[in-house]
C-alpha cells in the first residue's frame, strides 16, 4: 500500500496538548520505575523519555509499558504508541460519526443487531418495565452515557432491589439510563475469571472493502463489573490463532503467570470461537464505515461472540518484551494495512 502520512499537524497538536498538561513529577516517577527495573540512571531515562516523546511519537507510559529502556532503536520503531494511534484516529475516524462510539446510548441503538443481549433505556415512566426486565434478567449492567475505562458501568442483581420504584429513581438520578442483560461468558473464559466478563480487544481497520485485524489482546478481570486496569484487570496479547503470547501484565508493573484468583496459567489461554469473533468484527466495521480505525471489545458466550463496544481513538495494547520475550511490536502490521 502506498505511504500515506499521518500528518505533521496532528503530531504538533498532540505535543501542544501534552505540554499544556505535562506533569513533570509523574514523568520522574515513571523514570524511577524504569531505573529500578533496568538499572539505568534516572536522569538518563528522563532525557530519553522526553526525546522519544518529542521526536518519535512515544507516550511516557508507552515508554514504561513497552520496556523501551531495554530495546534498540530499530526495535523501538516496531512498537505502536498512543500518539501514533491518536494520529490514525484523527485521520481515519470521521468527526461527524465519532459520537456513535463514545455515546453509549447511541452505540447500542446503532449496533443493536450485534449486541446479542437484551437492553432497554430508562425514562421517568418505565419503573414497571425495569422490574419486568430484572425479573427476566436477575443480573443487569447499567451504563451512563459516556465514560472510559469502565467508569460508566455498574452491576446490580435483583437482590440489590428492596424498593423497585426507589431503585428506578436512583438510576435516573445517577444517569444510569442504559440497562443491559448481563453477559454469560463462555466456560473457557469463566475458567480464568468467573466473576467478570473477560473481553477481547480487537484493533481493526476498515479500508472501505476489507476489515483488517491489526492486533488482539485478551483482558482478564478480578471479579468486578469491568475488566479494565482501574478495576484490577490485566491483559496479554494474542497471536493470530487466538493463543496467549505469554503471561499477563498491566501498566502498574504487575505480572501474572497465573490468574491471582483462580490460578489459571495465563500463557495456556486460547480464545474460543476466534473465527466467529473475527466475522463479528467484520460485520461491525461495516455498520459505520466512516469510522475506519476502531478498537472493538468482544465477549465470547457459549452461543457465540457478542459486541460489547467499539472505541474510536482506541488505546494501544502492545507486547511487553520483558514479559513475553518478544522484542518486535505491532507497528509493521499497522503500516502494512494503513500505509503510514
Low-confidence stretches: none
Q: Going across the major beta sheet, what is the strand order?
A: 7-6-5-10-11
> How many domains comprise the coordinates?
3
H/E element sequence: HHHHHHHHEHEEHEHEEEEEHEEHH
Please give the CATH class of the largest domain. Answer: Alpha Beta
Q: What best-fitting shape do the alpha-carbon axes yield? A: globular
Please name the CATH architecture of the largest domain: 2-Layer Sandwich
Report on this model:
With 340 residues, this protein is α+β, with helices and mostly antiparallel strands. It has 3 domains: 8-92, no CATH class; 95-103 and 185-312, 2-Layer Sandwich (D-amino Acid Aminotransferase, Chain A, domain 1); 118-181, ATP-grasp fold, A domain (Dna Ligase, domain 1). The chain is built from 14 helices and 11 strands. The chain has helices at residues 8-20, 24-38, 42-56, 60-65, 73-76, 82-92, 99-102, 104-110, 127-136, 164-174, 187-190, 274-285, 321-324, 331-338, and strands spanning 119-121, 139-143, 153-157, 178-181, 200-206, 211-220, 234-238, 248-249, 255-256, 293-301, 304-311. A hairpin with a 2-residue loop joins strand 10 (293-301) and strand 11 (304-311). Helix 2 (24-38) crosses helix 3 (42-56) and helix 9 (127-136) packs across helix 10.
Q: Which descriptors apply to this entry?
A:
globular; 36% helix; 14 helices; 340 residues; D-amino Acid Aminotransferase, Chain A, domain 1; alpha+beta; Dna Ligase, domain 1; four-stranded antiparallel beta sheet
Topology:
Elements: H1 8-20, H2 24-38, H3 42-56, H4 60-65, H5 73-76, H6 82-92, H7 99-102, H8 104-110, E1 119-121, H9 127-136, E2 139-143, E3 153-157, H10 164-174, E4 178-181, H11 187-190, E5 200-206, E6 211-220, E7 234-238, E8 248-249, E9 255-256, H12 274-285, E10 293-301, E11 304-311, H13 321-324, H14 331-338
Antiparallel strand pairs: 1-4, 2-3, 2-4, 5-6, 5-10, 6-7, 8-9, 10-11
